[in-house]
Amino acid sequence: MKNFRMPFLKMGIMMDLETFKQHTRNVESFLNQEVKAFEKHAAEITAEWEDFERAEYYENSHDEYWELSKVYPNIQRKSELISIYTILEDTINRICLVYQSSIENPVKMKDLEANGIIDQGKRYLEKVVLLDFPTSHKSWKEITKIQQIRNSFVHVAGHVKTGNSDLIKYINQSQHLELKNNKIEILSGFSEHCLNIFEDFFNELFTRMEALK
Length: 213
Known about the structure:
It is a single chain. By secondary structure, the chain is mainly alpha-helical. The chain has one domain (6-210). The chain contains seven helices and two strands; from the N terminus they run ααααααββα. It has helices at 6-45, 51-60, 62-102, 117-127, 138-156, 165-173, 190-210; strands spanning 177-180, 183-186. Strands 1-2 form a two-stranded antiparallel sheet.
């Protein structure tokens, strides 16, 4: 079941992912430069001060430094995660709509009961398009973890239930995440890591789509 629109759709998807990757790199670089500029300025103006004066300056500047090094990056990374997840939803939806407009089947994507757009798209591709959806592929398995992390920020402010051992294990093994008091902290590089996972997933998905008879 080949569709001439799919190669162009794939090309557009990969370009979008690469553009977003570059954006996340630029933002992380900017945030890092702001912190370094603050540290450099503080070191320069306190270079000839007495120790007690320097200590007082750093104490008074703590809130500003905390905002630059922790608060602003956390806000940015959470926003990126939500935006990135929207890319995943939108892309799966676009793929399904292409099939929906080209195959003769009365069942539409909206007709299927599901838990969200991604699950609905997955069900449509499996049940209507008869695609061997890459459920067992490592990229999809990780996407389910990313989905849980996104949901935790949207619904419970980043908190993780103590009984969710699989997600806790994933977070503890990730170099881009930390868990503090059962709350997720996103570190530098997680947005780009997610985009790389999405890229791997879509490459696998399109390979299976091309194999359809």
